[in-house]
Amino acid sequence: MIYIVPVITLLTVLFGAIKKVGVYDSFIDGIKEAVGLSIKLIPYLAAVFMLMELMRVSGLSSYLGKLLSPAFQLLGIPNELSELIILRPLTGSGSLAVLENIFSTYGVDSYISRTASVIMGSTDTVMYVSAVYFSGVKDAPSGKAIAIALVASLFGTVASATICRFI
């Protein structure tokens, strides 16, 4: 198992040599492109991080969670998870703080905590991933992709609550 990375590296170099590709030059070109993308990405990430942290600190996420909890309850999602569901697509660190609060309030073996853990593992930070992806793509239909990702995240959340109810 510890030899996987060295073997893949060796195979890549051998394959490049067989195909007569300058492996080192290609590697350097890839790094140049990645550094350029990273620099272009900074403003997008800064905006997402600041807005999501403001949302969490201001209490807006908690308010939205309370507002949407009846709709979540119709989908079989416990009210206690509303704030986590609001924050998870937006911020990883904010949702992790909410998860820690859920653990300390309900205990780690409770239904609420198990469901929160599965939600954390089965959904993603849609806005962060979108910021990373769309900062490097020109003329991408970001609105549709974000909407689809949020719907998929909601389905993952509903499935998490349903599965954890029977575990």
A few lines on this structure:
This protein has eight helices and no strands. It has helices spanning 4-18, 23-58, 60-74, 82-87, 92-106, 111-122, 126-135, 142-166.
Number of helices: 8
Major sheet, described briefly? none
Helix content: over 70%
What is the beta-strand fraction? Answer: under 5%
Number of strands: 0
Q: Give unreliable regions as ranges.
A: none
Task: State the secondary-structure class.
Answer: mainly alpha
Order of helices and strands: HHHHHHHH
Rg of Cα set: 21 Å
How far the N terminus sits from the C terminus, by CA atoms, comes to: 32 Å
Summarize model confidence as the mean pLDDT.
Answer: 85
What is the 3D form? elongated
Number of domains: 1
Could you explain how this protein is built, in words?
There is one protein chain. With 167 residues, the chain is an all-alpha fold. It has one domain. 80% of the residues lie in helices and 0% in strands. Helix 6 runs antiparallel to helix 8. It is elongated, with a radius of gyration of 21 Å. The mean pLDDT is 85.
